[in-house]
Amino acid sequence: MPDSPARNAVRRGAPHPGRVIAGGFAAAIAAGTLLLSVPWAHTDGRSDVVVAVFTATSAVSVTGLSIVDTGTAWTTYGHVVLMLLVQLGGLGITTAATLIALVLSRRLGLRARLVAQAESRSLSAGDVRTVIRSVFLFSIASEAVVAVLLWAKWALVDGEPVLRTAWRAVFYAVMSFNNAGFSLSSDSLVRYAEDPATLLVICAATLLGGLGFPVVFELARGGFRNGGWRHPRSWSVLTRLTVTVTFWLLAVGTALLALFEVPNPGTLGGLGVGDEVVGAFTMAVMAGSAGFNAVDISQLTPEGMLVTDVLMFIGGGSASTAGGIKVTTFGLLAAVLWAELRGDEDVEVGRRRVPAATQRQALAVALLGIGLVAVGTLALHATTDQPTDVVLFEAVSAFGTVGLSSGVTADLPTPAHIVIVVLMYIGRIGPVTLASALALRERAKLHHLPEERMIVG
Q1: Would you call 225 helix, strand, or coil by DSSP?
Q2: What pLDDT, in 10s, does the model give residues 412-430?
Q3: Positive/negative CA dihedral, 312, 92, 172, 52
Q4: Measured at the alpha carbon of residue 358, what is the angle toward residues 12 and 123, in degrees to the nearest 5?
Q5: pLDDT tens across 40-74, in order?
Q6: Which pLDDT belongs to residue 104?
Q7: Residues 149 and 177: beta-carbon distance below 8 Å
Q8: Is the dihedral of CA 57, 62, 66, 72 positive or negative?
Q9: pTM given for the model
Q10: Alpha helices of 38-122 — where are they, by DSSP H?
């Protein structure tokens, strides 16, 4: 059986999409490190390479973890660089590289299309040009709307200075839509714990960026028909799975966090009933990948911390600015488990049969995530004296590119910072690279070995 065009392209020496993705992110991090290493990027006029590397990696991977106070440690130049790195990471290095290739060559070859698909999850190679343009315009337009809403709330309602508020609104709009938790305040969003309007706008931007571009595009272009809302059964399996799993994760996460944290005076305790609900919802949304916090994370109960760990590990939608193993992976694995418990031969989602190859890819991505978190936790344990729940929280947050911290990140030694940098980098490119590698390595077998049953469990 002849090889696929993609495999033939690899054999002819064309770069593998996984290598392009990994190399692109590494190049962006290196460039960001140089830009943040100059003395005028720091308010104290000194250059710190470790801080620059950590911050650049966190920005490009749209994580938001920081070992310095973002609001006071960086100058305006540093904040602009930080915002541009987050924007670049959110759009995706491969998407930007494909756009450059399109401008230079006036066309996209098969390899460039496959590279773009690996990041954008476009279902049709012929639609990549439209996807790239749409992703860029959608991102900029969404951030502009969020910035206007935040500016109106802070400047017109709260009476804050107009120009300073405009800059803050743009900064938080970029960070929230791209699911990066960098904040200009040392307490992140804690000062807005009793400001539901601000929290809900930022949550909406986070969810919009975290659903995934294919899902948002389908809902925007085909969600309505003949003046009415299309029935969810007419949506694609990707959209139905993403929306359904995201809804239930937010519902269950909000309920559990409210259950465990409302009695806790260090977090949600003491707030009004409405603020408690909004606060629990904000915690669930931000754990999906954004990394902002409206409560003191170091004061979470053990139960609340564990719930947050789970939400951070799962992350957001495929082809989104969120990290984690993705809600689609989690949903597919849940469907596989349900089919096995029922004794069904096929795994079905939304009246469609899920191919065995897709099931294996979901399992591989999930196991990769578990393995990386386990290794990262062990490495942090070896370099610090922090308790297990704390280092596990830091490892999951870094791998999931979330940006939440239990309050110890800045105090960790340099070896631990290096571990977190590696986790953020792999957490951003790992699932994408693995999925593209598995897709391109599929090949038809001319024969099959005899089947033999094994004891499982």
Answers
A1: strand
A2: 999 999 999 999 999 888 7
A3: positive
A4: 65
A5: 999 988 888 999 999 999 999 999 999 999 999 99
A6: 42
A7: no
A8: positive
A9: 0.87
A10: 49-60, 70-73, 76-91, 93-105, 110-120
CA distance 213 to 209: 8
pLDDT at 445 over 90: no
Burial class (CB in 10 A: 0-12, 13-18, 19+), 229: exposed
Instruction: Return the pLDDT at 446.
Output: 66
Residue with tokens 């990262």: 376
Q: Tell me the backbone φ, ψ of residue 160, rounded to 5 degrees.
A: -80, 160
Cβ(278)–Cβ(199) below 8 Å: yes
Q: State residue 311's pLDDT score.
A: 96
The H or E element spanning position 246 is: helix 237-261
Percent over 90 (pLDDT), the chain = 54
Whose tokens are 């939304």? That residue is 350
Residue predicted with more confidence, 272 or 217: 272
Residues 289/315, Cβ–Cβ less than 8 Å: yes
Tell me, what amino acid is at 285?
V
Q: Which two tokens stand for residue 151?
A: 């500016």
C-alpha–C-alpha distance, residues 49 and 428, integer Å = 22
Residue 260 near residue 303, CB atoms below 8 Å = yes
Long-range contacts, 380-386 (Cβ 8 Å, 24+):
380/412, 380/416, 380/419, 380/420, 383/412, 383/413, 383/415, 383/416, 383/419, 384/408, 384/412, 384/413, 384/416, 386/412
Instruction: Tell me what the mean pLDDT of segment 114-140 comes to.
Output: 62
CB-count burial class (<10 Å; 0-12, 13-18, 19+) for 47: middle
- Cβ atoms of 434 and 365 within 8 Å: the answer is yes
Distance CA 390, CA 381 (A): 10
Contact status, residue 431 vs residue 365, Cβ threshold 8 Å: yes
Residue type, 284: A
Note whether 429 and 25 are within 8 A (CB): yes
Phi, psi (degrees; rounded to nearest 5) at 180: -110, 135
Q: Are 291 and 64 in contact (CB under 8 A)?
A: yes
Return the domain boundaries, the chain.
5-441
> 280-329: per-residue pLDDT in tens?
999 999 998 888 999 999 999 999 999 999 999 999 887 788 889 999 99
3-state helix, strand, coil in the chain (%, to 5): 70, 0, 30
DSSP 325-372: S-HHHHHHHHHHHHHHHHT-SS-EETTEEPPHHHHHHHHHHHHHHHHH
Contacts of 216 by beta carbon, 8 Å cutoff, 6+ apart = 138, 208
Query: For tokens 């439209």, what's the residue?
Result: 130
